[in-house]
Amino acid sequence: MRPRYNKPYEIKRLEGLAFAIKKRRFPNNPYLVSPKFRDDNTNDLTKCIISFCYILGIRTERVANTGRNLNGKWIKGTGMNGTADVHAIRNGRVLMIEINVSTPTIDKATHNARISKR
């Protein structure tokens, strides 16, 4: 059984910032729902990072390179294996963020992609 998740202060603060921006964006809506964030798995941590970059005004997008299922047959994606999970651009500078929660090691495809880009 997994231990109970305790939300860190930073995540609570991110929720407060995101809700303040939401209230500023939609001032006439009295029924706004506060956004919920977690950081205990890769998918939720990616959502946190993208939201934080949005708050800072950084252009960010999530990159997926998994392919797709077409009529029960798997079609491989056209992107390069090992690409970063989040791509961000700020003041003309590119930042690529690889997010991994479960294992502390680098994926072999990611390692090979880093070597090939040099």
At a glance:
It contains 3 helices and 5 strands. With 118 residues, the protein is of the alpha+beta class.
Number of domains: 1
> End-to-end distance, in Å?
43 Å
Helix count, per DSSP?
A: 3
Order of helices and strands: HHEEEEEH
Tally of strands: 5
**How much is the radius of gyration in Å?**
18 Å
Strand order of the largest sheet: 1-4-5
Q: What overall geometry do the principal axes of the alpha carbons give?
A: globular
Average pLDDT over all residues:
85
Give unreliable regions as ranges.
Answer: none
**Estimated helix fraction:** 25-40%
**Overall SS class:** alpha+beta
Biggest sheet statistics:
3 strands, antiparallel
Strand content: 15-25%
What this model shows, in words?
The structure is a single chain. The protein is of the alpha+beta class and 118 residues long. It has one domain (9-65, 76-117). Helix content is 36%, strand content 17%. The protein is built from three helices and five strands. It has a three-stranded antiparallel sheet, covered by helices on one side. A two-stranded antiparallel ribbon has the order 2-3. Helix 1 crosses helix 2.
